[in-house]
């Protein structure tokens, strides 16, 4: 059932339900206040809901209660402070308080790649759902938002059944999340669709009420937010299918970059040209260092692992290739660096000892401080392993990067990083790097050589300023 909103007709399938707390709108909690949960909690308060965010990380909760957003996400600080002051939002490490507060509890904990293989680690889902269920004393709806292997919602339902008395009637639903870091506030307030997996009319009604603020905002802006109401399995699959598609699109253009490198073509012009075809579209066709972050890489691996378990592994074999194409871009940057520095590659890769390399960018993309599986940081580590002295600068990711890869040298500014460098690698396309003046930077370096790992620099400008320029998939 697909229900466009606002609908010209009443929505008969969605019954109005009274929240178990008796409040006019459901009171909502978010378990896990990381990149997903903190953003959601704050934006839902902005939509007018009464919200409680819960986490086991006391530092994070203390920061949030003090009006400090623990991550870098544009626009979130102001919304946090405004809604704390308005009294609609608070954060807690008390699970009993959380259980007592909410009508709808959203599970937003991490589902990282398992250390022992490709599948998803569901231990945080299990721990959060179990402790919540054990503390519930009235009917509520538990909604999974974390990205999970298909079948998890059924398992969560059993878990809830095991830990709550049947007469409470606690129900489970799944509503995957599609927000992009860096655009998260707008993505939560103005999503391009809402997908819910439900088993009962009551759950459907509660979830509708829990999303009504989003629909109302859309109506005031003369927009529609499509609502897809479906079963558990489809809801879970929609999420990983979307990420698999996005990853495939990026690897497709990076595969074309590889061919351009062999044939002497320019992938940026190729991408622009195919993107004019509306069936292809020009978004997510940016060739470069490839995809990283806490979602696409781990999600395509977990999807393959789950499909394998279900006997459908063949269907997703191409995702293995998508992953390999993506990872090859990292070694390509290493190779370009060695070429520019005139170093030959042996069987163990190039020897870059005695060189000094500036790495601009550490986060997995601009406008975030997130360095989880960041291609930029992975390349910085490869350059370091090859013997180079690596000096890194990132506008927002320094603290996380230092924690993740402490062996690199971290600098306080772009100019500090490039000073005396034999080579500059631009690996995350922050505006500060895109708009850097190649003439001024040229005065600081030891050698005017640049690898543009994101094809984000104006190659003509840099070449005119005397730089030897190499992009990915470009002649
Ligand atoms: N980051 C994104 O942009 C994004 C977008 C869509 C979906 N997702 C999915 O959302 C989920 C969360 O991702 P994230 O990036 O926010 O992760 P994160 O690591 O930033 O946040 C997870 C939070 O859960 C907390 N936590 C761990 N155990 C807990 C427990 N038992 N009870 C309560 N809290 C607990 C952690 O302390 C942490 O603050 C993942 O499944 C991810 O795939 C993330
Ligand atoms: O044309 C492109 C677009 C993106 N990327 C890279 O792809 C990665 C992922 O980018 P993006 O998708 O913008 O970041 P995320 O915030 O990880 O968002 C993805 O992962 C989230 C978590 O599942 C989903 O909710 C989002 O819909 C999905 O876009 C980054 O490293 C980008 O540099 C490219 O290399 N080329």
Verbal overview:
Belongs to the UDP-glucose/GDP-mannose dehydrogenase family. Pathway: Nucleotide-sugar biosynthesis; UDP-alpha-D-glucuronate biosynthesis; UDP-alpha-D-glucuronate from UDP-alpha-D-glucose: step 1/1. Keywords: NAD, Oxidoreductase. The chain is α/β, with parallel strands linked by helices and 475 residues long. It is 44% helix and 13% strand. The strands form four sheets. A six-stranded parallel sheet has the order 4-3-2-5-6-7, with helices on both faces. Helix 1 crosses helix 3, helix 9 runs parallel beside helix 12 and helix 12 crosses helix 13. The chain is elongated and about 75 Å long. The site of uridine-5'-diphosphate-glucose (UPG) has 22 residues, from helix 9 and helix 11.
List low-confidence stretches.
4-12
What does the overall shape look like?
elongated
Summed over residues and divided by their number, the pLDDT gives a mean of 95
The number of helical elements comes to 18
In which order are the strands of the major sheet placed? Answer: 4-3-2-5-6-7
Relative strand content: 5-15%
Helix/strand/pairing category = alpha/beta
List its salient traits.
elongated; single chain; binds nicotinamide-adenine-dinucleotide; 475 residues; binds uridine-5'-diphosphate-glucose; six-stranded parallel sheet
């Amino acid at each position: 059932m697909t229900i466009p909103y606002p609908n010209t007709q009443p929505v008969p399938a969605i019954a109005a339900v009274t929240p178990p707390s008796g409040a006019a709108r459901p009171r909502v909690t978010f378990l896990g206040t990381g990149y997903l949960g903190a953003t959601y909690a704050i934006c839902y308060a902005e939509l007018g809901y009464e919200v409680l965010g819960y986490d086991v990380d006391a530092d994070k909760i203390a920061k949030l209660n003090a009006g400090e957003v623990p991550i870098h996400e544009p626009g979130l600080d102001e919304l946090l402070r405004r809604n704390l002051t308005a009294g609609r939002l608070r954060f807690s490490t008390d699970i009993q308080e959380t259980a007592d507060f909410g009508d709808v509890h959203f599970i937003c904990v991490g589902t990282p790649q398992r250390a022992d293989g490709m599948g998803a680690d569901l231990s945080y889902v299990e721990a959060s759902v179990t402790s919540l269920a054990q503390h519930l004393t009235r009917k509520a709806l538990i909604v999974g938002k974390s990205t999970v292997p298909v079948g998890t919602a059924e398992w969560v339902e059993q878990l809830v059944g095991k830990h709550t008395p049947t007469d409470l009637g606690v129900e489970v639903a799944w509503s995957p999340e599609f927000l992009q870091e860096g655009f998260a506030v707008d993505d939560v307030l103005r999503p391009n669709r809402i997908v819910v997996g439900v088993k009962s009319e009551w759950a459907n009604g509660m979830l509708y009420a829990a999303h009504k603020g989003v629909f109302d905002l859309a109506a005031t802006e003369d927009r529609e937010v499509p609502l897809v109401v479906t079963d558990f399995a489809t809801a879970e699959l929609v999420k990983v299918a979307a990420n698999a598609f996005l990853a495939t699109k990026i690897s497709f253009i990076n595969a074309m970059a590889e061919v351009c490198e062999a044939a002497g073509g320019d992938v940026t012009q190729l991408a622009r040209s195919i993107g004019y075809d509306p069936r292809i579209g020009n978004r997510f066709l940016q060739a470069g260092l490839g995809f990283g972050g806490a979602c696409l890489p781990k999600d395509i691996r977990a999807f393959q692992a789950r499909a394998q378990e279900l006997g459908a592994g063949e269907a997703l074999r191409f995702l293995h290739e998508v992953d390999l194409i993506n990872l090859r871009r990292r070694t390509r940057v290493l190779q370009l660096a060695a070429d520019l520095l005139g170093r030959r590659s042996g069987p163990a890769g190039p020897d870059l000892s005695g060189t000094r390399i500036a790495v601009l960018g550490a986060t997995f993309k601009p406008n975030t401080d997130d360095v989880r599986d960041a291609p930029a940081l992975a390349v910085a580590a490869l350059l370091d392993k090859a013997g180079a002295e690596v000096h890194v600068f990132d506008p927002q990711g320094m603290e996380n990067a230092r924690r993740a890869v402490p062996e690199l040298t971290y600098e306080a500014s772009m100019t500090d990083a490039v000073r005396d460098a034999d080579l500059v690698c631009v690996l995350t396309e922050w505006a500060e790097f895109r708009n850097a003046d190649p003439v001024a930077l040229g005065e600081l370096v030891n050698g005017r050589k640049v690898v543009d790992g994101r094809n984000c620099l104006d190659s003509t400008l840099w070449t005119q300023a005397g730089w030897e320029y190499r992009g990915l998939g470009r002649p």
